[in-house]
Amino acid sequence: MPEQHEWLPYVIVWACVCVLVVLFRIRRGLLHQDGAVPKIEIGNGQTIGTREEQDDYFSTFVSPHGTIAVLADGISGLSGGRAASTAAVTTFIKQFLKLEHIRELPEFFANAAAASNAEIMHTLKGAQGGTTLVAVVVEGGNLHWGAVGDSLIKIFRNGDFIDVNQKHILELVLEERFVSGEITRDEALDSPMKNQLVNYLGYEGFKNIEIGTEPVRLKKRDKVMLCSDGVYNTLTEVELEDILSKPISAYDAAQEIIEAVERKQLAHQDNATVVILEKGW
């Protein structure tokens, strides 16, 4: 009689395995629906252009609080452009590593900008220097950001760009003065100073960093692009869209953007840097 039940332990084991598999799949599904951490793919590319020195600097870092990307474009006309961009990015990353909780992110951007400005001035010791800066943090599918100067943050989604920040240049001030009736349209459009920065890191008059009031909810396959003016002043949005629409990795896309910049062979090609963060699952 006992021999007839020798298979019973195997049935029990098999049943337990099946139950564990089902529970695992249910748990995985619940996690996926309840804020599973999305995978962030990172790509970057850079060219010195025809400049004698590379004044752009960038860095990315993955931490428990999210993925951070920072890009700074040192002001080429100032002697300390390279030192300023390096100090700004390095300081931002250091400040990010001090975060204890994700809720500190809004204060992080403002505090990191102030610390970067102070560090640049300390590093330059009176020499002229300054830098633009764009920084993003992606956590739990949300994009948090801060920006100062004229480097850009854009989201590429379903074949189109979504602009995230605005340029801090005199052109916007002139547009406001035109709207208020202080100057004519021609005076606003034809000003030779319209591309001059009105806010940047590295001087006593630094105002503040533009910070997103609310995080941007990213969708699957969104590409977040950070770039210096050496990219967007050389390539059109259509050219950038053609590259970002390709089914290639974030790294390959960044490399293609830089290759496209170099193929233009502009006589006065500025430093060009691009960082791409692509959200997937």
Automatic annotation (TrEMBL):
Q: Which organism is it from?
A: Paenibacillus tianmuensis
Can the keyword Glycoprotein be found in this entry's annotation? no
Write down the CDD domains for this protein, in alphabetical order: PP2Cc (cd00143)
All copies of the PPM-type phosphatase domain together span: 41-279
Q: What is this protein called?
A: Serine/threonine protein phosphatase PrpC
- Keyword flag Membrane: yes
> Do you know which InterPro entries this protein is assigned to?
PPM-type-like_dom_sf, PPM-type_phosphatase-like_dom
What Pfam families would the database entry show?
PP2C_2 (PF13672)
Transmembrane domains' residue ranges: 7-26
Q: Identify the domain of life.
A: Bacteria
